[in-house]
Amino acid sequence: MSMDIRDVDDDATVDNLPDNNADFELDHLLPANTTNLNSSVTRKRVGRKANIQKRDWAHVVDVNKPMTKFHELVPDMAHKYPFELDTFQKEAVYHLEMGDSVFVAAHTSAGKTVVAEYAIALAGKHMTRAIYTSPIKALSNQKYRDFKQTFSSSSVGILTGDVQINPEANCLIMTTEILRSMLYKGADLIRDVEFVIFDEVHYVNDAERGVVWEEVIIMLPDHINIILLSATVPNSKEFAEWVGRTKKKDIYVISTAKRPVPLEHYLYAGRDMYKIVDANRNFLSQGYKDAGEALRRKQDKEARGGWPTASGRGGQRGAAPARGASSRGGSGSARTFHQPDKNLYVHLLGNLRKKNLLPVVIFTFSKKRCEENAGTLTNADLCTSVEKSEIHVAIEKAMSRLKEPDRRLPQIRRMRELLSRGIGVHHGGLLPIVKEVVELLFARGLVKVLFATETFAMGVNMPAKCVVFSHIRKHDGRSFREILPGEYTQMAGRAGRRGLDPTGTVIIVANDELPEQTTLHTMMLGTPTKLQSQFRLTYNMILNLLRVEALRVEEMIKRSFSENASQRLLPDQQKKVAESETTLQKLPRLSCDICSPDISQLYETSKAIITCNNKMLKMVSDHPSSSRVLCPGRVVVLRDEHFRWNVGVVLKQAPVAASASGVREKIKRYDVLALVDLATKNAPARSGDLQALAPPPIWPPRPANLVGDLTEYDVKIVPLTSIAMVTDAVLKVEVELIVPGRRISAMKNAVRLLSGLLINWAPLEDIPELGWKSVMRTLEFQEVVGERTELALLLPSVTCTSCPDFDDHYAILHAEKILKENIANLKLAISDQNLELIPDYEQKIEVLQELKFIDENSTVQLKGRVACEINSASELILTELILENTLAAYEPEEVVALLSCFVFQEKTDVEPVIPPKLQEGRDAIMAISERVGRVQVRHKVPGEEFRALKFGLVEVVYEWAKGMPFEQITELTDVAEGTVVRVITRLDETCREVRDAARVIGDTELFKKMEEAQIKIKRDIVFAASLYF
């Protein structure tokens, strides 16, 4: 049974925050008072109390123990289920009933949605609200339909960029960006929210949008309980610990690695299937070998002409190798690779039908290849006449939303033809309505074969009997790589329908050669990718935080997941500061009349000289002259936590030591024959706080200070940093007999020579030192020698050394200095200045000041207030564009065409035909972009690669806004229809943001123009209502 943490002091909450500036007409970003929305949670838990000593925010719940008393603990469930809940679901339900926050990590199809549904039902029961957020709009649409079926239509609403349905509902579905915007604007509805459900939390790893998750979690008010739903990740506790500490809430981590339907993994080679991982996750090496043999037999047959190859039956057609051909071996390789067999999917489909493994999802990491693969199944018909009729009715019903010309689009005609035979395609290049038709028909079991990209793996539960990977390499936007274990798990998880299939079947197609066994093992059985912070500071975030004043930017950075490791140590470091300050107060105060005037000066001057000595030795040791300075026989004086002015003879350089981590340290070490006393000889190895053990810095060493008994000597390995002084004396010693020989006679001989030297030094005031000035002629070295000489001139005036108790007083001063230095270092470590993103923040502040978005006091100016409205585009460039009144010279359809450069991010090989007036607009935007870019370069701020301006759809958007039919639009570009629709729908959001910016600056002309632009683009198939509504 899990441990509960309910008996925590009430004052363990976030500090009350100051009111916002009323001038900005914003509600409080983070309400100061926490409303207890759920009075029922105040009741005591029966038999599940625990006293908490240590403040751990994340608590891992043991789901391996059955929860036998669940119905006693939760007698009146807010939502009834027609099946018995799994243990992890019961634990989650129980903790939600108790008013806790939870992190639920489970595989696809395990039943995480139960947790979301229960939270929504509980909010309804408590007369509060629940917000469900998802990373993508398509997933929001699907969830809207599902929740409407589970609950009443009136209790579920949806808010996305272009849709608002039932915004007063007690369950609101929205993208994370919409919730972020609400939090910055202090929307009233946030006060009524009891739960926020974050689905697909592993999306926090997304480089571009992951930061939004962190922003929202940080800014959520205290009274809201958080429900995090994720695929299985290795560091769920670490992430939950961060959320808990940030929100001052206990987070219960409920993870299950159990799959409702176990998976079996196969290789498809030589037109047969070979099992390589069984349902118990054991890798079967024999299956892998058999697949390799089958592939070799197939290739031998092809070479002899026994099987049709990729170039067709006669081997005459076909020319260049396909993009899907293996690239192993690199260009210029003499080895010839086959194209993927054009009959591959015909044979594979035959195999799957024979083994009764339909429906199947075939994952392909290219939109183009999805279409090509579907095109190879021209003769396949997988539907009965009844199913064909159902498909026809469903398509007709969906198409009735479109105008007649849009129903005749080539993509829709092709989709009709494929679906009528039970074959579907699903990728980002499809029109949204086409994707939704495919999803709905697949969910009904009417699509038997689905060629899909990996986006199909994210989202609602749409399982198949079998999943096929056409390749295991993908392009991630930067380079080709093997798919990661987490990605494989997410897609493979679509295999196996709960309650229908005893096991799910996953197949990897081996085209020309078998993937490496280690690659397969890592991908199938490896650890999924950790949740990693993608937190970064955006100008919009900085300006919004400066404007609402409820949360300092430094606080936002401090609370981010990227600072989790250092912030976790914060309480310990604060405790150490307090303890050190207490110790400092208790130290005896120096009250000696002789020492007080200049003992501190002696300390600081000596410390500075020793620093110079270390610098000089480091420079010399890295230079060929070191063989002359630290030559065999050179007499040196040693001082560190072991040696206290011990005199010694350098024998030779010792091997470089390896640190505890195995890394070879850079500090050089030397074998030294040193005169020692018994304390030094028996000293233990170095350990602990070396700074605390180090002797007080004092200069120069006097002959009278030297430690050592002529009868006690030892050969020690000494780091360069322990050599306090290099004398001008070089003795003739028999190095090889001492190291490694350890010949006593040779050592005694060297000690005798040292003894004579010490007798010569005894009457002197100073030990004769090496003349450093002539050692190296480099400017840097000579500067350090000069600095040391100037410091040494300050020493003769010091009088404190005449005090009879000087040594004791100097030790007191040393203890005080060490403590103060430790406290200063600890305070620096926990200060804002130690935050990793502070330099980036300061650079961005400089950019905003130079561009006049904020003043020298970081007060947000008019430009900054405009930039706060811009979320979907580059806020700096678009703000400059608005305030320079560049858009005034253009008609609405021209404005929206120019704005497309901020939204379109893909490549196009077709150069758009841009009218002269729009070319002027493009040049004006580029000029502003270059000017802003120069300011950023000047302040060392890197550009964001996913915010590059691309003008590839200017013509398309211009003609669409002028009323051109969509069929003709598709002929203007090689960009996929789905991408065109996505760009235009996002442009509607950008237009709305520019319209709101126009309201801020009081530009009524621009306001009207943007409203008109929105009307012009919001038509026909681009804005056809979702089939899920």
Basic shape = elongated
Described by its quaternary structure, the protein is single chain
Structure summary, number of beta strands: 23
CATH topology of the largest domain: SH3 type barrels
Strand order of the largest sheet: 1-9-2-8-7-3-6-4-5
Pick out the low-confidence regions: 1-54, 309-339, 660-664, 685-692
Radius of gyration: 37 Å
Mean pLDDT level: 84
* Overall CATH architecture of the largest domain: Roll
Please identify the structural class as seen in this structure: alpha/beta
Biggest pleated sheet: 9 strands, mixed
Number of helices: 37
The CATH class of the largest domain is identified as Mainly Beta
C-alpha end-to-end distance? 42 Å
State the helical fraction. 40-55%
Number of domains: 4
| Beta strand % | 5-15%
Quick rundown:
Residues 294-338 are annotated as: Disordered. Residues 294-304 have a biased composition (Basic and acidic residues). The protein is 41% helix and 12% strand.
Word description of this protein:
The protein is α/β, with parallel strands linked by helices. The chain folds into 4 domains: 58-255, 3-Layer(aba) Sandwich (Rossmann fold); 343-525, P-loop containing nucleotide triphosphate hydrolases (Rossmann fold), CATH 3.40.50.300; 598-796, SH3 type barrels; 870-1017, Sec63 N-terminal domain-like fold, CATH 1.10.3380. The strands form 4 sheets. A 9-stranded mixed sheet has the order 1-9-2-8-7-3-6-4-5. Helix 14 links the parallel strand 13 (423-426) and strand 14 (449-452). Residues 1-54, 309-339, 660-664 and 685-692 have low confidence and may be disordered. Keywords: ATP-binding, Cytoplasm, Helicase, Hydrolase, Nucleotide-binding, RNA-binding. One of its GO terms (biological process) is nuclear-transcribed mRNA catabolic process, 3'-5' exonucleolytic nonsense-mediated decay.
